[in-house]
Design brief:
By secondary structure, this protein is of the alpha/beta class. The chain has one domain: Rossmann fold, CATH 3.40.50. 30% of the residues lie in helices and 17% in strands. The strands form 2 sheets. A 9-stranded mixed beta sheet has the order 2-1-3-4-8-7-11-10-9, with helices on both faces. Strands 5-6 form a two-stranded antiparallel sheet. A hairpin with a 5-residue loop joins strand 5 and strand 6 (148-149). The longest helix is centred in the first third of the chain and has 15 residues, at 37-51.
């Protein structure tokens, strides 16, 4: 059986400043589990690009491997796209960006693709301040390989198999601030009121913008004792196939800044979220790190724009690259001749 979106478009659909409707920013139908938080993030990216009146063909979207890295297929079908090797998306993004600075670069990764196999490349793309938006769809597990704990999973958390995680988690926003990201934010996939403005701000930022987005996994956040677990379903349905995935509703929420808000996940666990308030100094990295650590000790997850450096030099500024994309240059511009190359070599002696 195949599925396709209807081609019909409402004649009175709202258009933005470049004449596009929201439908023009959509992609293919999602193949992720029903209720997956990743789909909510894709919808937020669609809304953000529509509201910013970005022409889809001016966007280059990149990803690695994992459930999260499938999601670029579900938004901006009219944009450029590259699905790279596991953990190596930053290298591809860097090469594309250096060759053509005129595009808007959106990278989508996961906690495994970023915090495990891709950790080295993730650190270096931040310290070089590549001009891109880097979105981590963070669910704390490896959804494509049966739900093992990822490097961002909390200590003492229980996996679907009942194993207790003995390791300290990697906090990606703290790493981002320490290593050199010039825009660092965190949000929850179900909080559209916060997430869409954050994505818009990240895309508009000149430099490396990191967004760590907590995204519920409906399949593997499913430990022993949960009324929504596979074991519970098997007790009530002996004929259930082993690959059955219970259909869940997407988790949504909305709350005010400065208020601690509890969100119940599909497995019965609870996230305690708190948005930053107006007294928070988002331009002081040490203040940001202290605030994140303070809330973590109280088992709270601080969300919002956590840190920004408005006056940093991005990679093109540092390298003093040409302003024209390489694909628009003539052969004479690309190959200036041996005399010019000799002068460059002489300057390196």
């Amino acid at each position: 059986m195949t599925y396709a979106k209807p081609a019909f478009r409402h004649p009175d659909a709202r258009t933005n400043d470049v004449g596009c409707t929201r439908r023009d920013y959509e992609g293919g139908l999602s193949t992720l589990c029903a209720g997956c938080g990743h789909d909510s993030i894709s919808a937020a990216i669609i809304d953000a690009c529509f509201e910013l009146s970005i022409e889809p063909h001016r966007v280059a979207k990149l990803s690695g491997i994992g459930c999260s890295s499938k999601t670029p297929a579900y938004f901006l079908s009219g944009s450029h796209s590259f699905n790279s090797v596991h953990g190596r998306m930053p290298s591809v993004a860097t090469g594309a960006n250096v060759a053509n600075r005129d595009l808007i670069y959106i990278g989508v990764s996961g906690d495994g693709d970023t915090a495990s196999i891709g950790m080295g490349q993730f650190a270096h793309v931040m310290r070089r301040n590549l001009n891109m938006t880097y979105i981590v769809e963070n669910n704390g597990c490896y959804g494509l390989t049966k739900g093992q704990d990822s490097a961002t999973m909390d200590t003492d958390s229980v996996s679907k198999k009942g194993d207790i995680n003995p390791y300290m988690p990697i906090d990606l926003v703290r790493v981002g601030i320490e290593v050199g990201a010039t825009f660092v934010g965190r949000s929850f996939s179900g909080d559209k009121e916060q997430l869409v403005p954050l994505i818009k701000a990240a895309i508009s930022h000149r430099g490396f913008a990191l967004l760590d987005i907590i995204s519920p996994c409906v399949t593997f956040n499913n430990h022993q004792g949960s009324t929504k677990s596979y074991a519970s379903f098997r007790e009530h349905n002996e004929a259930m196939p082993v690959d059955f995935v219970p259909r869940r509703e997407a988790i949504t929420t909305s709350y005010d800044a400065g208020v601690v808000h509890e969100v119940c996940m599909h497995d019965g666990s609870v996230l305690r979220l708190q948005k930053v308030n107006e007294e928070y100094d988002i331009e002081d990295p040490q203040s940001a790190l202290q605030a994140i650590a303070h809330h973590a000790k109280q088992e709270r997850i601080l969300t919002g724009l956590l840190y920004i450096n408005r006056n940093s030099e991005e990679l093109h500024d540092v390298l003093q690259t040409a302003t024209k994309p390489l694909n628009t240059m003539s052969q004479r511009e690309l190959c200036p001749g041996s005399r010019f190359l000799d002068s460059i070599n002489a300057g390196l002696r």
